[in-house]
Amino acid sequence: MTASRKASEVNLTAITLLLCLSPVIGDYCEVNNCHNGATCVTGVGEEPFICICADGFAGDTCNLTETGPCSPNPCKNDASCQVIAPTRRGDVFNEYICNCRAGFEGAHCQTNVNDCANRPCKNGGVCRDLDGDYSCQCPSPYVGKQCHLRCISLLGMEGGAIAESQISASSVHYSILGLQRWGPELARLNNQGIVNAWTSATHDKNPWIEINMQKKMRLTGIITQGASRMGTAEYIKAFKVSSSFDGKTYTTYRMDGQRRDKVLVGNTDNDSTKTNLFDPPIVAQYIRIIPVVCRKACTLRMELVGCELNVYSNTTGCSEPMGMKSRLISDGQLSASSSFRTWGIDSFTWLPQFARLDKQGKTNAWSPSQNNRSEWIQVDLEKTKRLTGIVTQGAKDFGVVQFVSAFKVAYSNDEESWSMVKDINTDSDKLFQGNIDNNSHMKNVFEPPFYARYVRVVPWEWHERITLRMELLGCDD
Ligand SMILES: *[C@@H]1O[C@H](CO)[C@@H](O)[C@H](O)[C@H]1NC(C)=O
Ligand SMILES: *[C@@H]1O[C@H](CO)[C@@H](O)[C@H](O)[C@H]1NC(C)=O
Ligand SMILES: *[C@@H]1O[C@H](CO)[C@@H](O)[C@H](O)[C@H]1NC(C)=O
Ligand SMILES: *[C@@H]1O[C@H](CO)[C@@H](O)[C@H](O)[C@H]1NC(C)=O
Ligand SMILES: *[C@@H]1O[C@H](CO)[C@@H](O)[C@H](O)[C@H]1NC(C)=O
Protein backbone atom coordinates (compact mmCIF):
# COMPACT_ATOMS: atom_id res chain seq x y z
CA MET A 1 0.00 0.00 0.00
CA THR A 2 2.86 2.40 -0.64
CA ALA A 3 0.74 4.29 -3.12
CA SER A 4 -1.82 5.34 -0.60
CA ARG A 5 0.74 6.25 1.99
CA LYS A 6 2.46 8.56 -0.45
CA ALA A 7 -0.72 10.16 -1.63
CA SER A 8 -1.85 10.70 1.90
CA GLU A 9 0.86 13.27 2.39
CA VAL A 10 -0.63 15.45 -0.27
CA ASN A 11 -2.62 18.44 0.73
CA LEU A 12 -6.30 17.62 0.43
CA THR A 13 -7.39 20.81 -1.25
CA ALA A 14 -4.70 20.49 -3.89
CA ILE A 15 -5.78 16.95 -4.68
CA THR A 16 -9.48 17.82 -4.66
CA LEU A 17 -8.69 20.48 -7.23
CA LEU A 18 -6.73 17.96 -9.25
CA LEU A 19 -9.60 15.51 -9.14
CA CYS A 20 -11.94 18.09 -10.58
CA LEU A 21 -9.51 19.07 -13.32
CA SER A 22 -8.11 15.71 -14.23
CA PRO A 23 -10.34 12.74 -15.09
CA VAL A 24 -7.17 10.62 -15.57
CA ILE A 25 -6.86 9.91 -11.87
CA GLY A 26 -9.85 7.57 -11.65
CA ASP A 27 -13.24 7.39 -9.97
CA TYR A 28 -14.39 7.90 -6.44
CA CYS A 29 -14.94 4.67 -4.47
CA GLU A 30 -18.50 3.36 -4.18
CA VAL A 31 -17.89 2.73 -0.48
CA ASN A 32 -15.53 5.16 1.20
CA ASN A 33 -12.97 2.99 3.01
CA CYS A 34 -10.97 5.99 4.14
CA HIS A 35 -11.25 7.63 7.52
CA ASN A 36 -11.27 11.13 8.94
CA GLY A 37 -12.80 12.93 6.00
CA ALA A 38 -10.38 11.48 3.44
CA THR A 39 -11.21 11.12 -0.24
CA CYS A 40 -11.25 7.61 -1.68
CA VAL A 41 -10.23 7.09 -5.32
CA THR A 42 -10.11 3.94 -7.47
CA GLY A 43 -8.38 3.12 -10.72
CA VAL A 44 -4.97 4.43 -9.74
CA GLY A 45 -1.94 2.19 -10.13
CA GLU A 46 -2.04 -1.36 -8.78
CA GLU A 47 -4.05 -0.61 -5.67
CA PRO A 48 -7.82 -1.31 -5.49
CA PHE A 49 -8.23 2.17 -4.01
CA ILE A 50 -6.15 4.93 -2.49
CA CYS A 51 -7.01 7.38 0.27
CA ILE A 52 -6.16 11.03 -0.01
CA CYS A 53 -6.03 12.16 3.60
CA ALA A 54 -7.27 15.42 5.06
CA ASP A 55 -4.67 17.65 6.73
CA GLY A 56 -3.36 16.19 9.95
CA PHE A 57 -3.98 12.52 9.05
CA ALA A 58 -1.82 9.87 7.50
CA GLY A 59 -1.65 6.12 6.91
CA ASP A 60 -3.12 3.82 4.28
CA THR A 61 -6.69 4.54 5.32
CA CYS A 62 -6.00 7.88 7.01
CA ASN A 63 -6.68 6.35 10.40
CA LEU A 64 -3.37 7.65 11.80
CA THR A 65 -2.79 11.17 12.98
CA GLU A 66 0.23 12.98 11.56
CA THR A 67 3.39 10.94 11.90
CA GLY A 68 5.43 13.75 13.42
CA PRO A 69 6.38 17.39 13.23
CA CYS A 70 8.28 16.75 9.97
CA SER A 71 5.41 15.10 8.17
CA PRO A 72 4.29 16.86 6.14
CA ASN A 73 7.52 18.78 5.75
CA PRO A 74 7.05 22.33 7.10
CA CYS A 75 10.38 23.49 5.61
CA LYS A 76 10.46 25.53 2.41
CA ASN A 77 12.77 25.62 -0.59
CA ASP A 78 13.72 21.95 -0.61
CA ALA A 79 15.11 22.08 2.95
CA SER A 80 15.19 18.87 4.95
CA CYS A 81 13.29 18.61 8.24
CA GLN A 82 14.86 17.06 11.31
CA VAL A 83 12.92 15.99 14.42
CA ILE A 84 14.58 17.15 17.65
CA ALA A 85 13.83 16.97 21.34
CA PRO A 86 11.32 19.74 22.13
CA THR A 87 13.15 23.02 22.71
CA ARG A 88 12.32 26.68 22.92
CA ARG A 89 13.43 28.85 20.04
CA GLY A 90 12.65 32.43 20.88
CA ASP A 91 8.99 32.53 21.88
CA VAL A 92 8.15 29.42 19.93
CA PHE A 93 8.16 25.86 21.17
CA ASN A 94 9.73 23.62 18.54
CA GLU A 95 10.02 19.94 17.79
CA TYR A 96 11.92 20.20 14.54
CA ILE A 97 14.57 22.19 12.75
CA CYS A 98 14.89 22.92 9.05
CA ASN A 99 18.29 22.35 7.47
CA CYS A 100 18.45 24.96 4.73
CA ARG A 101 20.11 24.49 1.36
CA ALA A 102 22.87 26.95 0.45
CA GLY A 103 21.40 30.34 -0.29
CA PHE A 104 18.38 30.11 2.03
CA GLU A 105 17.85 31.09 5.64
CA GLY A 106 15.11 31.61 8.23
CA ALA A 107 13.44 29.17 10.62
CA HIS A 108 11.68 27.53 7.68
CA CYS A 109 14.32 28.39 5.09
CA GLN A 110 11.73 30.68 3.58
CA THR A 111 14.20 33.49 2.81
CA ASN A 112 16.43 33.46 -0.24
CA VAL A 113 19.74 34.97 0.93
CA ASN A 114 20.72 37.86 -1.27
CA ASP A 115 24.12 36.75 -2.57
CA CYS A 116 24.49 40.19 -4.17
CA ALA A 117 24.32 41.93 -0.77
CA ASN A 118 28.12 42.10 -0.44
CA ARG A 119 28.39 43.67 -3.89
CA PRO A 120 30.64 40.96 -5.33
CA CYS A 121 30.69 42.45 -8.85
CA LYS A 122 33.50 44.93 -9.40
CA ASN A 123 33.91 47.63 -12.05
CA GLY A 124 30.25 48.30 -12.63
CA GLY A 125 29.24 44.67 -13.13
CA VAL A 126 25.52 44.01 -12.62
CA CYS A 127 24.84 41.34 -10.00
CA ARG A 128 22.09 38.73 -10.27
CA ASP A 129 21.12 36.78 -7.16
CA LEU A 130 20.86 33.02 -7.61
CA ASP A 131 20.16 30.14 -5.25
CA GLY A 132 23.37 29.99 -3.22
CA ASP A 133 25.35 31.87 -5.87
CA TYR A 134 25.41 35.04 -7.97
CA SER A 135 26.44 35.99 -11.46
CA CYS A 136 27.98 39.24 -12.66
CA GLN A 137 27.21 40.77 -16.02
CA CYS A 138 30.41 42.66 -16.78
CA PRO A 139 30.66 45.84 -18.85
CA SER A 140 33.35 45.65 -21.53
CA PRO A 141 36.32 45.33 -21.19
CA TYR A 142 35.95 43.62 -17.81
CA VAL A 143 35.70 39.85 -17.52
CA GLY A 144 35.81 37.18 -14.83
CA LYS A 145 33.42 35.88 -12.20
CA GLN A 146 33.55 39.24 -10.42
CA CYS A 147 34.43 41.46 -13.42
CA HIS A 148 37.81 41.92 -11.75
CA LEU A 149 39.98 41.33 -14.82
CA ARG A 150 40.51 43.65 -17.78
CA CYS A 151 40.56 42.26 -21.31
CA ILE A 152 42.77 44.92 -22.91
CA SER A 153 45.85 43.30 -24.47
CA LEU A 154 47.10 44.68 -27.78
CA LEU A 155 46.80 41.70 -30.09
CA GLY A 156 49.81 42.37 -32.30
CA MET A 157 49.16 44.40 -35.45
CA GLU A 158 51.71 46.97 -34.28
CA GLY A 159 53.83 44.57 -32.27
CA GLY A 160 54.01 41.93 -35.00
CA ALA A 161 52.40 39.00 -33.19
CA ILE A 162 49.85 38.99 -35.99
CA ALA A 163 51.78 37.75 -39.04
CA GLU A 164 51.40 39.09 -42.59
CA SER A 165 49.73 35.84 -43.64
CA GLN A 166 46.89 36.48 -41.17
CA ILE A 167 45.89 39.75 -42.84
CA SER A 168 43.91 39.86 -46.08
CA ALA A 169 41.75 42.35 -47.95
CA SER A 170 39.14 42.63 -50.71
CA SER A 171 41.58 44.60 -52.90
CA VAL A 172 44.87 46.51 -52.93
CA HIS A 173 45.70 49.94 -54.28
CA TYR A 174 48.79 50.29 -56.47
CA SER A 175 50.14 53.81 -56.96
CA ILE A 176 52.92 55.42 -59.00
CA LEU A 177 52.32 53.21 -62.04
CA GLY A 178 52.03 50.13 -59.89
CA LEU A 179 55.33 50.61 -58.04
CA GLN A 180 53.79 51.25 -54.62
CA ARG A 181 51.68 48.45 -53.17
CA TRP A 182 49.38 49.54 -50.33
CA GLY A 183 48.83 45.98 -49.16
CA PRO A 184 46.80 44.76 -46.14
CA GLU A 185 49.98 43.54 -44.41
CA LEU A 186 50.94 47.20 -43.98
CA ALA A 187 47.83 48.09 -41.97
CA ARG A 188 49.74 48.21 -38.71
CA LEU A 189 49.20 50.98 -36.17
CA ASN A 190 51.98 53.62 -36.32
CA ASN A 191 53.57 51.96 -39.37
CA GLN A 192 56.17 54.35 -40.81
CA GLY A 193 57.55 55.02 -44.29
CA ILE A 194 56.24 56.37 -47.55
CA VAL A 195 54.03 53.36 -48.19
CA ASN A 196 52.77 52.59 -44.68
CA ALA A 197 49.10 51.51 -44.73
CA TRP A 198 46.45 49.47 -46.50
CA THR A 199 44.38 51.19 -49.18
CA SER A 200 41.59 49.50 -51.12
CA ALA A 201 41.55 49.67 -54.92
CA THR A 202 39.71 52.67 -56.40
CA HIS A 203 37.23 50.43 -58.23
CA ASP A 204 36.41 48.36 -55.11
CA LYS A 205 32.84 49.23 -54.13
CA ASN A 206 32.69 46.84 -51.14
CA PRO A 207 36.11 47.02 -49.55
CA TRP A 208 37.13 45.14 -46.41
CA ILE A 209 40.25 44.10 -44.54
CA GLU A 210 40.30 40.94 -42.44
CA ILE A 211 42.42 39.57 -39.60
CA ASN A 212 42.43 35.83 -38.94
CA MET A 213 43.38 35.46 -35.29
CA GLN A 214 43.89 31.70 -35.80
CA LYS A 215 41.69 30.85 -32.80
CA LYS A 216 38.67 32.30 -31.07
CA MET A 217 39.50 35.47 -29.22
CA ARG A 218 37.56 38.04 -27.27
CA LEU A 219 37.80 41.52 -28.81
CA THR A 220 36.97 44.52 -26.68
CA GLY A 221 38.17 47.32 -28.95
CA ILE A 222 39.82 48.54 -32.13
CA ILE A 223 42.25 51.42 -32.67
CA THR A 224 42.28 52.96 -36.16
CA GLN A 225 44.53 55.45 -37.89
CA GLY A 226 44.74 56.88 -41.41
CA ALA A 227 47.87 57.78 -43.41
CA SER A 228 49.08 60.39 -45.87
CA ARG A 229 49.89 59.69 -49.48
CA MET A 230 51.62 62.24 -51.69
CA GLY A 231 50.96 64.89 -49.02
CA THR A 232 47.26 64.17 -48.82
CA ALA A 233 45.51 62.77 -45.75
CA GLU A 234 43.51 59.59 -46.44
CA TYR A 235 41.45 57.84 -43.83
CA ILE A 236 38.27 55.94 -42.98
CA LYS A 237 35.68 58.27 -41.44
CA ALA A 238 33.15 55.57 -40.55
CA PHE A 239 33.15 51.79 -40.65
CA LYS A 240 31.34 48.62 -39.65
CA VAL A 241 32.83 45.49 -38.17
CA SER A 242 31.80 41.94 -38.92
CA SER A 243 33.09 38.72 -37.45
CA SER A 244 33.10 34.99 -38.05
CA PHE A 245 33.98 31.73 -36.33
CA ASP A 246 34.78 29.84 -39.52
CA GLY A 247 35.62 32.43 -42.21
CA LYS A 248 32.43 31.50 -44.07
CA THR A 249 29.45 33.00 -42.28
CA TYR A 250 29.84 36.51 -40.95
CA THR A 251 27.82 38.55 -38.46
CA THR A 252 27.89 42.32 -38.56
CA TYR A 253 28.42 43.91 -35.15
CA ARG A 254 25.36 45.37 -33.42
CA MET A 255 24.81 46.70 -29.95
CA ASP A 256 22.73 44.50 -27.63
CA GLY A 257 19.07 44.75 -28.54
CA GLN A 258 19.67 46.83 -31.69
CA ARG A 259 18.38 45.81 -35.11
CA ARG A 260 20.75 47.98 -37.11
CA ASP A 261 24.41 47.39 -37.80
CA LYS A 262 26.60 49.54 -35.60
CA VAL A 263 28.50 52.20 -37.53
CA LEU A 264 31.67 53.17 -35.72
CA VAL A 265 33.21 56.62 -35.97
CA GLY A 266 36.69 56.49 -37.48
CA ASN A 267 39.44 58.99 -38.15
CA THR A 268 39.59 62.70 -38.90
CA ASP A 269 43.17 63.13 -40.10
CA ASN A 270 46.20 61.24 -41.38
CA ASP A 271 47.87 60.45 -38.09
CA SER A 272 45.86 60.55 -34.89
CA THR A 273 44.36 57.36 -33.50
CA LYS A 274 40.74 56.68 -32.70
CA THR A 275 39.70 53.97 -30.24
CA ASN A 276 36.30 52.28 -30.34
CA LEU A 277 35.28 49.84 -27.59
CA PHE A 278 33.06 46.83 -28.25
CA ASP A 279 30.41 46.46 -25.59
CA PRO A 280 29.41 43.67 -25.69
CA PRO A 281 32.80 42.26 -26.74
CA ILE A 282 33.08 40.33 -30.00
CA VAL A 283 34.04 36.68 -29.70
CA ALA A 284 35.37 35.40 -33.02
CA GLN A 285 38.32 34.05 -34.94
CA TYR A 286 37.96 36.31 -38.01
CA ILE A 287 37.33 40.04 -37.83
CA ARG A 288 36.58 42.29 -40.79
CA ILE A 289 36.69 46.05 -40.93
CA ILE A 290 34.26 47.35 -43.55
CA PRO A 291 34.80 51.00 -44.52
CA VAL A 292 31.54 52.94 -44.92
CA VAL A 293 32.77 56.49 -45.51
CA CYS A 294 36.34 57.24 -46.63
CA ARG A 295 38.20 60.48 -47.15
CA LYS A 296 40.04 60.41 -50.53
CA ALA A 297 40.61 56.65 -50.23
CA CYS A 298 39.96 53.88 -47.75
CA THR A 299 43.34 53.88 -46.03
CA LEU A 300 43.95 52.20 -42.69
CA ARG A 301 46.47 51.40 -40.00
CA MET A 302 45.04 49.59 -36.98
CA GLU A 303 45.39 47.59 -33.79
CA LEU A 304 43.02 45.10 -32.14
CA VAL A 305 42.38 45.11 -28.38
CA GLY A 306 41.23 42.01 -26.50
CA CYS A 307 42.38 38.86 -24.78
CA GLU A 308 42.47 35.10 -24.91
CA LEU A 309 39.05 33.64 -24.26
CA ASN A 310 39.82 31.96 -21.03
CA VAL A 311 42.17 34.33 -19.27
CA TYR A 312 40.04 33.93 -16.20
CA SER A 313 39.07 30.33 -16.78
CA ASN A 314 42.21 28.37 -17.51
CA THR A 315 42.07 24.59 -17.81
CA THR A 316 41.49 24.13 -14.12
CA GLY A 317 39.45 27.30 -13.84
CA CYS A 318 36.83 26.70 -16.54
CA SER A 319 34.69 24.39 -14.47
CA GLU A 320 32.14 26.67 -12.91
CA PRO A 321 28.67 25.20 -12.41
CA MET A 322 26.59 26.53 -15.30
CA GLY A 323 23.55 26.98 -13.07
CA MET A 324 21.33 23.88 -12.88
CA LYS A 325 21.57 23.94 -9.10
CA SER A 326 21.71 27.72 -8.66
CA ARG A 327 18.88 28.22 -11.19
CA LEU A 328 20.96 30.57 -13.33
CA ILE A 329 19.60 28.15 -15.91
CA SER A 330 15.88 28.86 -15.68
CA ASP A 331 13.07 26.31 -16.05
CA GLY A 332 12.36 27.52 -19.58
CA GLN A 333 15.86 26.50 -20.67
CA LEU A 334 15.24 22.84 -19.82
CA SER A 335 13.34 20.37 -21.97
CA ALA A 336 13.16 16.62 -22.54
CA SER A 337 11.87 13.96 -24.91
CA SER A 338 9.16 13.08 -22.36
CA SER A 339 8.39 13.07 -18.66
CA PHE A 340 7.21 10.25 -16.41
CA ARG A 341 3.87 10.88 -14.69
CA THR A 342 3.35 8.90 -11.48
CA TRP A 343 -0.25 7.64 -11.74
CA GLY A 344 -0.71 10.12 -14.57
CA ILE A 345 -0.90 12.93 -12.03
CA ASP A 346 0.51 16.28 -13.14
CA SER A 347 1.85 17.24 -9.74
CA PHE A 348 3.87 14.00 -9.61
CA THR A 349 5.43 14.47 -13.03
CA TRP A 350 9.21 14.06 -13.23
CA LEU A 351 9.86 17.14 -15.33
CA PRO A 352 13.20 18.14 -16.89
CA GLN A 353 12.94 21.28 -14.71
CA PHE A 354 13.50 19.02 -11.68
CA ALA A 355 16.82 17.66 -12.96
CA ARG A 356 18.76 20.09 -10.79
CA LEU A 357 21.70 18.73 -8.84
CA ASP A 358 20.80 18.13 -5.17
CA LYS A 359 17.12 18.95 -5.67
CA GLN A 360 14.99 17.72 -2.77
CA GLY A 361 11.32 16.83 -2.54
CA LYS A 362 8.98 14.07 -3.64
CA THR A 363 9.56 14.37 -7.36
CA ASN A 364 13.08 15.71 -7.43
CA ALA A 365 14.61 14.59 -10.72
CA TRP A 366 13.85 14.14 -14.40
CA SER A 367 12.52 10.79 -15.52
CA PRO A 368 11.19 10.05 -19.03
CA SER A 369 7.96 8.22 -19.81
CA GLN A 370 9.79 5.25 -21.39
CA ASN A 371 13.03 3.63 -20.43
CA ASN A 372 14.79 3.48 -23.76
CA ARG A 373 17.76 5.01 -25.52
CA SER A 374 15.65 7.48 -27.48
CA GLU A 375 15.01 9.60 -24.41
CA TRP A 376 17.01 12.75 -23.69
CA ILE A 377 17.11 15.85 -21.54
CA GLN A 378 18.26 19.15 -23.03
CA VAL A 379 19.78 22.35 -21.66
CA ASP A 380 19.66 25.55 -23.72
CA LEU A 381 22.48 27.74 -22.40
CA GLU A 382 21.11 30.68 -24.43
CA LYS A 383 24.51 31.45 -25.87
CA THR A 384 27.57 29.47 -26.81
CA LYS A 385 29.56 28.38 -23.78
CA ARG A 386 32.70 26.35 -23.27
CA LEU A 387 31.75 23.09 -21.59
CA THR A 388 34.30 21.09 -19.67
CA GLY A 389 32.35 18.56 -17.62
CA ILE A 390 29.14 17.19 -16.17
CA VAL A 391 28.03 16.03 -12.72
CA THR A 392 25.17 13.53 -12.52
CA GLN A 393 23.09 12.19 -9.65
CA GLY A 394 20.22 9.71 -9.26
CA ALA A 395 17.21 9.90 -6.95
CA LYS A 396 14.66 7.78 -5.13
CA ASP A 397 10.99 7.25 -5.90
CA PHE A 398 8.91 5.67 -3.15
CA GLY A 399 12.14 4.46 -1.56
CA VAL A 400 13.31 2.80 -4.77
CA VAL A 401 16.82 3.79 -5.79
CA GLN A 402 16.88 4.88 -9.45
CA PHE A 403 19.74 6.26 -11.53
CA VAL A 404 21.44 6.44 -14.93
CA SER A 405 24.55 4.27 -14.91
CA ALA A 406 25.89 5.22 -18.35
CA PHE A 407 25.04 8.02 -20.76
CA LYS A 408 26.09 9.83 -23.93
CA VAL A 409 26.27 13.57 -24.51
CA ALA A 410 25.25 15.44 -27.66
CA TYR A 411 25.60 19.13 -28.43
CA SER A 412 24.43 21.64 -31.01
CA ASN A 413 24.48 25.32 -31.83
CA ASP A 414 21.19 25.46 -33.73
CA GLU A 415 19.13 22.70 -32.07
CA GLU A 416 18.99 20.93 -35.45
CA SER A 417 22.33 19.38 -36.29
CA TRP A 418 23.78 17.51 -33.33
CA SER A 419 27.26 16.17 -32.64
CA MET A 420 27.95 13.38 -30.19
CA VAL A 421 30.83 13.79 -27.78
CA LYS A 422 33.44 11.32 -29.08
CA ASP A 423 36.01 9.19 -27.34
CA ILE A 424 39.33 10.71 -28.46
CA ASN A 425 40.99 7.29 -28.66
CA THR A 426 38.37 5.33 -30.60
CA ASP A 427 36.42 8.14 -32.32
CA SER A 428 33.19 6.35 -31.40
CA ASP A 429 30.51 7.94 -29.20
CA LYS A 430 31.88 8.45 -25.71
CA LEU A 431 30.02 6.43 -23.11
CA PHE A 432 30.20 8.24 -19.80
CA GLN A 433 30.18 6.38 -16.49
CA GLY A 434 27.07 7.38 -14.55
CA ASN A 435 25.81 6.83 -11.02
CA ILE A 436 25.84 3.89 -8.65
CA ASP A 437 23.33 5.01 -6.02
CA ASN A 438 20.49 7.42 -5.28
CA ASN A 439 22.50 10.35 -4.06
CA SER A 440 26.22 10.62 -4.74
CA HIS A 441 27.65 12.96 -7.37
CA MET A 442 29.46 11.46 -10.36
CA LYS A 443 31.73 13.88 -12.21
CA ASN A 444 32.89 13.38 -15.80
CA VAL A 445 35.28 15.66 -17.69
CA PHE A 446 34.87 16.50 -21.39
CA GLU A 447 38.22 15.87 -23.05
CA PRO A 448 38.62 18.00 -25.03
CA PRO A 449 36.07 20.60 -23.93
CA PHE A 450 33.54 21.71 -26.56
CA TYR A 451 31.66 24.89 -27.38
CA ALA A 452 27.89 24.72 -27.63
CA ARG A 453 24.62 26.43 -26.85
CA TYR A 454 22.50 23.25 -26.58
CA VAL A 455 23.55 20.16 -24.64
CA ARG A 456 21.66 16.87 -24.48
CA VAL A 457 22.22 13.97 -22.12
CA VAL A 458 21.13 10.64 -23.60
CA PRO A 459 20.75 7.87 -20.96
CA TRP A 460 22.28 4.59 -22.17
CA GLU A 461 22.12 2.26 -19.15
CA TRP A 462 20.06 2.65 -15.99
CA HIS A 463 18.96 1.09 -12.73
CA GLU A 464 15.18 0.65 -12.24
CA ARG A 465 14.04 3.78 -14.09
CA ILE A 466 15.95 6.50 -15.93
CA THR A 467 16.23 9.16 -13.21
CA LEU A 468 18.61 12.08 -13.39
CA ARG A 469 19.72 15.19 -11.55
CA MET A 470 22.68 17.04 -13.06
CA GLU A 471 24.97 20.07 -13.36
CA LEU A 472 27.01 21.21 -16.36
CA LEU A 473 30.51 22.60 -15.81
CA GLY A 474 32.21 25.20 -17.97
CA CYS A 475 32.57 28.92 -18.48
CA ASP A 476 31.42 31.71 -20.78
CA ASP A 477 32.42 31.61 -24.45
C1 LIG B 1 -5.57 1.62 10.70
O1 LIG B 1 -6.18 0.78 9.73
C2 LIG B 1 -5.45 -0.42 9.46
C3 LIG B 1 -6.18 -1.18 8.36
O2 LIG B 1 -6.41 -0.36 7.27
C4 LIG B 1 -5.33 -1.25 10.71
O3 LIG B 1 -4.55 -2.41 10.45
C5 LIG B 1 -4.72 -0.46 11.82
O4 LIG B 1 -4.71 -1.17 13.02
C6 LIG B 1 -5.44 0.87 12.01
N1 LIG B 1 -4.71 1.69 12.98
C7 LIG B 1 -5.31 2.39 13.92
C8 LIG B 1 -4.40 3.19 14.83
O5 LIG B 1 -6.50 2.43 14.04
C1 LIG C 1 49.68 64.36 -41.06
O1 LIG C 1 49.78 64.43 -39.65
C2 LIG C 1 50.91 65.12 -39.19
C3 LIG C 1 50.95 64.96 -37.66
O2 LIG C 1 49.70 65.23 -37.09
C4 LIG C 1 50.84 66.56 -39.61
O3 LIG C 1 52.00 67.26 -39.17
C5 LIG C 1 50.75 66.58 -41.12
O4 LIG C 1 50.56 67.95 -41.57
C6 LIG C 1 49.62 65.74 -41.63
N1 LIG C 1 49.70 65.64 -43.10
C7 LIG C 1 48.63 65.80 -43.86
C8 LIG C 1 48.89 65.66 -45.32
O5 LIG C 1 47.53 66.06 -43.43
C1 LIG D 1 43.88 29.09 -12.98
O1 LIG D 1 43.37 30.30 -12.48
C2 LIG D 1 43.27 30.33 -11.07
C3 LIG D 1 42.66 31.67 -10.71
O2 LIG D 1 41.52 31.91 -11.45
C4 LIG D 1 44.65 30.17 -10.47
O3 LIG D 1 44.53 30.15 -9.06
C5 LIG D 1 45.25 28.87 -10.94
O4 LIG D 1 46.57 28.77 -10.45
C6 LIG D 1 45.28 28.83 -12.45
N1 LIG D 1 45.74 27.52 -12.89
C7 LIG D 1 46.59 27.36 -13.90
C8 LIG D 1 46.94 25.96 -14.26
O5 LIG D 1 47.06 28.30 -14.51
C1 LIG E 1 11.21 4.79 -26.92
O1 LIG E 1 10.10 5.39 -26.30
C2 LIG E 1 9.40 6.31 -27.12
C3 LIG E 1 8.29 6.90 -26.31
O2 LIG E 1 8.79 7.82 -25.39
C4 LIG E 1 8.86 5.63 -28.34
O3 LIG E 1 8.23 6.60 -29.17
C5 LIG E 1 9.99 4.99 -29.08
O4 LIG E 1 9.49 4.24 -30.16
C6 LIG E 1 10.79 4.06 -28.18
N1 LIG E 1 11.96 3.61 -28.90
C7 LIG E 1 12.34 2.35 -28.88
C8 LIG E 1 13.57 2.05 -29.65
O5 LIG E 1 11.74 1.49 -28.25
C1 LIG F 1 20.11 7.18 -0.62
O1 LIG F 1 21.15 8.09 -0.34
C2 LIG F 1 21.20 8.51 0.99
C3 LIG F 1 22.27 9.59 1.11
O2 LIG F 1 23.47 9.17 0.51
C4 LIG F 1 21.51 7.33 1.88
O3 LIG F 1 21.56 7.74 3.24
C5 LIG F 1 20.39 6.31 1.69
O4 LIG F 1 20.70 5.16 2.43
C6 LIG F 1 20.19 5.96 0.24
N1 LIG F 1 18.97 5.19 0.13
C7 LIG F 1 18.95 3.96 -0.32
C8 LIG F 1 17.62 3.32 -0.33
O5 LIG F 1 19.95 3.42 -0.75
Explain the overall architecture:
- The protein has 477 residues and is mainly β.
- It has four domains: 2-65, Laminin (Ribbon), CATH 2.10.25; 80-112, no CATH class; 153-308, Sandwich (Jelly Rolls); 320-476, Jelly Rolls (Sandwich), CATH 2.60.120.
- The radius of gyration is 31 Å and the shape is elongated.
- Strands 14, 15, 18, 19, 20, 21, 22, 23, 24 and 25 form a ten-stranded antiparallel sheet that branches.
- Mean pLDDT is 87; it is low at 1-24 and 312-316.
- The two termini are 51 Å apart.
- It has helices at residues 2-8, 12-21, and strands spanning 27-28, 39-42, 49-52, 57-58, 64-65, 80-89, 92-99, 104-105, 111-112, 126-130, 133-137, 142-143, 149-150, 153-154, 167-169, 173-175, 180-182, 198-199, 209-225, 227-229, 232-244, 251-252, 264-265, 274-295, 299-308, 320-321, 334-336, 377-393, 395-397, 400-412, 419-420, 432-433, 442-463, 469-476.
In short:
This protein is mainly beta and 477 residues long. It is 4% helix and 43% strand.
Contiguous uncertain segments of 5+ residues? 1-24, 312-316
Counting helices, strands and paired strands, the structural category is: mainly beta
Q: What name goes with the CATH superfamily of the largest domain?
A: Galactose-binding domain-like
Counted beta strands: 34
Average pLDDT taken over every residue: 87
- Give the total of domains: 4
Count of DSSP-assigned helices = 2
CATH-scheme architecture of the largest domain: Sandwich
Strand % is 35-45%
Q: Might you state the CATH topology name of the largest domain?
A: Jelly Rolls
Overall body shape: elongated
Ligand inventory:
2-acetamido-2-deoxy-beta-D-glucopyranose
Share of helical residues: under 10%
Q: What is the multimeric organization of the chains shown?
A: single chain
How far apart are the termini? 51 Å
| Major pleated sheet | 10 strands, antiparallel
What is the CATH class of the largest domain? Mainly Beta
Radius of gyration: 31 Å
